[in-house]
## 1
Amino acid sequence: MKIVLTGSIGRINQTLVPQLTHNGHDVTVISHQSSRSGLIKVFRATPAIGRLDDEAFLTRTFRGADVVYLMLTGVLASDDIYAAAKQQAEIYAAAINAAGVKRVVNLSSVGADLGPEVGSLYMYHIIEQTLTSALTDVDLTFIRPTAMYYNLLNSVPTVRKSHRIYTNASLDVKNVWVAPVDVTPVIIKALTEPVTGKTVSYVASDEQTYLEVASALSQTLKMPDLRVSQVPDEVMQDNLVTAGMPIAFAREYVKTVAYQREHDFYADYRAHQPRLGTVKMADFAQVFAEDYHNQQVIKH
């Protein structure tokens, strides 16, 4: 199959691309950084260097593809993340239609079934709706991973400094986590085993509360006083901005977590309960520990 992927060589594509090319598929990877060309070629894929807001470039790159894989990138620094997400989805849709592509797989997110009340994840609702409305003659699969484990790596500095994870989430409510390597096989199936019409697939690896997350990290790091602390929304927003997150996105991200704290966020996930993947929180704790120790080495 001729497959075109957006997302450069990010966390998911690092495992997705080599598996697809190993299985004999003709893979083109879009990246806006020419420096990524070498690694893309190492994975035996063809680099296409250009901008995702360049409709003409996307149309040329998509033309002749059996399937195109779309993901959202580069909007988190926007003053209006929702307008930016809609604009990107509209550009994608226009290029898909102009290129005559009939099969699209979109990396969406848990929470895409909800409205503006869900904060930052509303971006994915906008994208799904925009693609669905514009691509009426295209088979669409939306992949909805849950919270990525690697987001927990943002807590490495506070764990190192004060042995604390800070969050505005409920500490004893189950959250659903996923590893990129568990997302990859779901994407491969969606790309290579087409399904007619519009379909939605959730992807998850483990279900753990923040208290259980702290326990797993405490054991792995051999840090018995490691704790997770719940902080008010405004404190969490200030912490995120101080750590470098754009203020507009920080505000909406905190809103997302607050919604999960106060509502049944995972209702649609449970209604379409996927088989959990192989990477559990205890496995990710090893990754967290490696990052923790690497940052110590860099600092010293």
## 2
Amino acid sequence: MTSAPALARPAPPAAVVDERRIGLRARARHTGALARRSVLQIRQNPTAMTDALLTPIVLTVLFVFVFGGSIGGDGGRAQYTAFLVPGLMVILGLTIAMAVGVGVHDDFRTGVMDRFRAMPIGRSSVLVAKLVVETGRMLVAITVLLAVGALLGFDVAGHWPGLLAAVGLTAVFGTSLVWSFMLLGLTLRTAQAIQGLSVLVLTPLEFGSSIFVPTSTMPDWLHTFTRFNPLTHMADAARGLALGEGPVAGPVFWTLVWSVGLTALTAPVAVAKFRTKT
């Protein structure tokens, strides 16, 4: 009696229709429907917003009251709060984006993505819908951050257009990070690997930047690294736009260059990986 052959893992389900025949209007409609589905899921499970609502509160209070007295100089915690809050916009973008990578991996593990790939919709619509929802969560987190910062003394001194521009630029940079982490979630095999690699890469980028402290206090070799760090460009741009202090044009330009470059490199690869992932 022969043993039964081992079951092979099924191939990705084929699209019901040729994806190339799906027009832009149909793709936009599919994206909207999928985004609405995700928002309804968040309404049914509000705990999905825990990171967006609590992370800005915890980070702001922690850094202001632990480091503000010693780093703030003569201005104390108020001066450090003004320095810190624009930088924390970048951290929130990273935090939300990193969670996306794990979420995409879990969606494949539970079979949700396989059901989407069996539907007559554009493959890119699935990822773009997730991008839209996560950008919305990012904006909610930044709003909470600004509210907490205002309670602790953060004042833009009338630079409201600049503050809105800083929020918009952070969202643009954040979306490029979302594409990067979606690609990571589609590539690595376990959630632990995604989280481990993310922490390994992001920790030196975060602390080797101008997010938490002025780079002028760092040793020469680290100061050189910060000059090429995209997080430094983003933090300096947000700080210059929101407060009207320091250079603006250069940091904004390089932030946009990094955002466009990361999106151009990772978005097409992420969509292609989504089509073929098994």
## 3
Amino acid sequence: MAVFSKSQVPQFSVEVYQNEYLPEGGREVNAIVTVTSTGGGTSGGAPLLGASPSPSYIPGHAPGAAVVIMVDCSGSMDYPPTKMRNARDATAAAIDTLRDGVAFAVVAGTHVASEVYPGDGRLAVADAQTRAQAKEALRRLSAGGGTAIGTWLRLADRLLSGSDVPIRHGILLTDGRNEHEAPEDLRTALEANAGRFTCDARGVGTDWEVKEVTGIASALLGTADIVADPTGLAADFTSMMENAMGKEIADVALRLWTPVGVEIKFVKQVAPTVEELTGRRTEAGPRAGDYPTGSWGDESRDYHVCVQVPQAGIGQEMLAARVSLIIPAADGGAPEVLSQGLVKAVWTDDMVASTSINPQVAHYTGQAELAQVIQQGLDARKSGDFDGATAKLGRAVQLAADSGNRDTAKLLSKVVDVVDAATGTVRLKAKVAEADEMTLETRSTKTVRVKK
């Protein structure tokens, strides 16, 4: 559990965007909940956990954050040989980015997981000496063996769980498919580690499985991406570590309380990426449930909450849901409430008011559909259903254009020839580079915020 002085606690705010008006007989209530954290290490406010110099770390005392870097060392990392060298350089760059006082370790992953530094089931505490020692130890990283990612995650958890810190994070790099353990072994490892640490996952080259890498990041509330050219690994690892160093507070949950008779249809994160949270609910007392959001630094995220309320007559109104940001108490007592907002329902006979769609709700409904149709279109293309792929990817082009999601539109243009973006008229390209298709699939859930 994070412990802060009053001046160090990041400040959270919750804003609710919705059209609260329903027509007679209307039951579905949609709201976009924007959560913003400010006053942490990346805004010039309180220092980073583990930063140096920093009141949050005193030599000889426990560090405020811990990171385990898991590097794929399977045989395929030797093809081409520069790939392994790029992985070593990237890991060295990440180590250089560690703040003094952060606990860390490096793990080599094959069909087994091995400690590279510091060893003996320990974590080192970052300073000039340990960073130099860790980079020297990277010389021992060599390619050989298979790939069993579940074993890497289990070792990372054992290392991280031995450190009494609020922020526990992993960085995982793979270049191949998880072929040396059963799919259920990886699934079991992810289920066991969910909520214990967060993890960013990266696929290097084009011989890995997108759904495996994105599944790891999704389960462990981290980010996923492709580094098609291994020479880009160092910059990507540096960026990932900088982001990890910016986290100030862990184990934040979105708590949703609903009155009697209200049914929750779904809860999902919709920015900066689409992430389904509905099935991750843990009960938190009468009519309340918690949805995990992971660690926070200075950032803002959007969530789409959809509930079904009982029918009511014109002129009636009710509280449809109360959304709170909370940190669960370590002893099982009352949680700390960081901020909260209200979702309302009001029944009216004003047709203009009741049929108006809130711009934020409309935007993120489109962004969620965009992510879905890209996946469906790519799956159809792989299965040989070219008509289905054309229809789905055409719809994706239309949605990307409507919402101003230029990054996704650019990725789509490498897979289809766009005839008319406004109507979603496209033609599948006859030849598509594997890296382009994998990049589109990996980044399909990235969204843009509502245009001002």
